Amino acid sequence: MPHSSPVTVDTSPVVTTTLGPVRGERRADGSCRFLGIPYAKPPVGPLRFAAPVPPEPWTEPLDATAYGPTAQRRPFAEVTTIPEPSIPGEGVLNLNVFTPHPDPGSHSGAGLPVLVWIHGGGYVAGSAASPWYDGAAFNRDGVVLVSLGYRLGIEGFLHVEDAPDNRGVRDWIAALEWVRDNIARFGGDPAKVTIAGQSAGGGAVQTLLAVPSARPLFRGVISVSGAVMRPDGPEVARAVSRLFTGRTGVPATAAALQDLGDDELLALQDRLGEPGPDREGLPPMLSLVPFADGDLIPEPVLDALTTGDAGAGVPLMLGFTEHEFNMIPTPEGLPLPLLLGGLGLDEARAGAFAETYADADPSGLFGQALTDVTFRAPSVAVADARAEREQPTWLYQFTWTSPVNGQAYHCLDLPYAFDLLDAEGVRAAAGDTPPQDLADAVHRAWVAFVTEQDPGADWPAYTTGSRATMIWDSNPRVAEDPLREVREIWLG
């Protein structure tokens, strides 16, 4: 009697979303991941500068086993701390879902908490396909993780007269609407969504706190080294557009830009970013950023968070590393007081800054000033303002220094938060023996916040009385008002 052919059973998980079925990948630990799911049509041609448009529905299972195209066409720099793959293709408005549910799509009502991650990259680069953003450890601890891609640079944030502003922000909102409509099918609870991001992504989640239409889409926020630029507003955005046209000779319009190739657009973006006297009055670092347009974003984000009621009642965990940009050397030939004046310090406060860091390496003082003005001072201002209004807030400073360069620098805290010390590139950033105990502590606090909207009893909320601040170091501890000098120098 002839042998029958063996039957192959496909155990790949399939979830039917509101747009169509997607086929993911089951991992060795029983969790599942679905990569490159489109949440909007490819932003090409007439859609390149339009608000995001929902994709056309499909009927056959969509292969979701590989990361989708990225808006990043080149890395932020030749060498970046975070491995950030650039993946070609038009469908850059896609997201990834990592779920611990063993049978996603079964509609079993697992109701797990959800963390939605927005990558950094100065609003001009970055990639949701980074191995540092894998959801494995969050899945292990009962959290669904979603990471998303969005339009960057000129396409995402340049003010153009014939297209909606803040297209990158609209992409974040469209992705969150997809999460609202679909995450239950992957085991998550749409009522338990926390948004988080680092650097530009940290600025993104602070921005979303100031967007009224986005507020129903999440219940908590984690801002890691959040970058929110000042000055802010439509007048600044229009000035950036005029600078763009003046420097490139190309009108800042969708009609003039939408059919250019990626390399052409990047070349124009480079021209816009060059230093020069014609940049006076514009943000000193980044030009292509979210801005208060009076419509989607009604008022400047830092104003909304420090003097308005934006984010009222929303739990917020925020913080930074101690030496974010200290690796940037002090420019030669320019006295420190002049450099500090350019960052907004008068003579008296510039003197206080120099006194505070009298024992520091002089070559890193300008980098420390950039760290303070870009990350530490704004976050302290937000925490102080929320404490005054008794809003639930937790502040931290990551101070563990890498043996690679002796600093707690930009991005170093992420593998600890994601508990991914074995990921590609981590040892190059954190040395050969990054402390697992620290990763356990940081990640545990994140999981607690996402799950309970509170990082735990050993980390009290930030109040006007104690200004309790978590210090993430080899021996994590809570300190009372450790950032007083930052407040006095930059906010006093």
Mean of pLDDT: 94
Which spans have pLDDT < 50 for at least 5 consecutive residues?
1-9
Strand order of the largest sheet: 3-4-6-8-7-9-10-11-12-13-14
Overall structural class, as computed from helix and strand content, comes to alpha/beta
Please give the count of helices.
15
What's the alpha carbon Rg, rounded to whole Å? 23 Å
What does this structure look like?
With 492 residues, this protein is an alpha/beta fold. It is built from 15 helices and 14 strands. It has helices at residues 136-140, 153-157, 167-182, 200-209, 234-248, 254-257, 262-273, 301-306, 336-342, 347-356, 365-388, 414-417, 426-430, 436-452, 484-490; strands at residues 14-16, 21-23, 25-26, 32-38, 62-63, 94-99, 112-118, 144-148, 188-198, 220-224, 316-321, 393-398, 468-472, 477-480. The strands form two sheets. It has an eleven-stranded mixed β-sheet with strand order 3-4-6-8-7-9-10-11-12-13-14, with helices on both faces. A three-stranded mixed β-sheet has the order 1-2-5, with no helix packed on it. Strand 3 (25-26) and strand 4 (32-38) form a beta hairpin. Helix 10 runs antiparallel to helix 15. The protein is globular and about 65 Å long. The chain starts with 13 loop residues before the first strand and ends with a helix. Residues 1-9 have low confidence and may be disordered.
